[in-house]
Amino acid sequence: MLTGQESTEPGAVPFGVGGRELLARAPLDGAYRGRVSSLCRLIDAVDFDIDAVAGPIRARLCGHRGYTAVQAIPGIGPVLAAVFVAEIGEIDRFPGPAQLASWAGLTPRHRESDLVVHRGRITKQGSTLVRWAAVEAAHGVPHTAGWLTSTRARVAERRGRNIATVAVARKLLTLVYYGLRDGHIRALHAAKAAV
């Protein structure tokens, strides 16, 4: 709409924090102004509904040790941490992080007969929401995340970008497991190799 009205400001982004001010200042014709106003009212209504649900969720999670600990992992913010806490539930039902990764469907398929072993794609069995959250967190890992970034680069060089993303998602789920179990993250920084 803004492009059709020739009213875009250079470098201005209508989806950022100052987007509302940009839309309010934009000189738009009647039909365009009505459409923008209608969409802004719709955004306000959805924001109101989100706030009505987010408040009780925040109150319920504020005292959860694992929720706070998981947010210390690079790439995981409050929303993904809430998804992990809600979907995984009691972490004690998993003996270890490998079982959590398997439950999330992030482990490779394994078929064997006698001495022949075939490893395939990830199983995609289990919780699709936890798998999605882990992959989203893997995409959100900043380039300054140390050993997670080097793991992604090393695997991507050998196997490709998508397989590297799944590998980092598995590593993140390992950190999530320990964060939910212990209430803190121990292995955010990889240990230095012995010389």
Structure description:
By secondary structure, the protein is mostly helical. The protein has 2 domains: 1-62, no CATH class; 65-182, no CATH class. The protein contains 8 helices and 2 strands; from the N terminus they run αααααββααα. The protein has helices spanning 19-25, 30-61, 65-70, 78-88, 97-103, 128-139, 147-159, 161-182, and strands at residues 108-113, 116-122. The chain has a two-stranded antiparallel ribbon with strand order 1-2. Strand 1 (108-113) and strand 2 (116-122) form a beta hairpin. The termini are far apart.
How would you briefly describe this protein structure?
The chain is mainly alpha-helical and 195 residues long. It is built from eight helices and two strands.
Provide keyphrases for this structure:
Transposase IS116/IS110/IS902 C-terminal domain-containing protein, 56% helix, elongated, 195 residues, mainly alpha, two-stranded antiparallel sheet, 8 helices
Which range does the strand content fall in? Answer: 5-15%
In the sheet with the most strands, the strands line up as 1-2
Distance between the termini: 62 Å
User: What is the 3D shape?
Assistant: elongated
User: Element order, helices and strands?
Assistant: HHHHHEEHHH
Organism: Micromonospora tulbaghiae
Domain Transposase IS116/IS110/IS902 C-terminal: 69-139
GO molecular function, one term: transposase activity
Pfam families: Transposase_20 (PF02371)
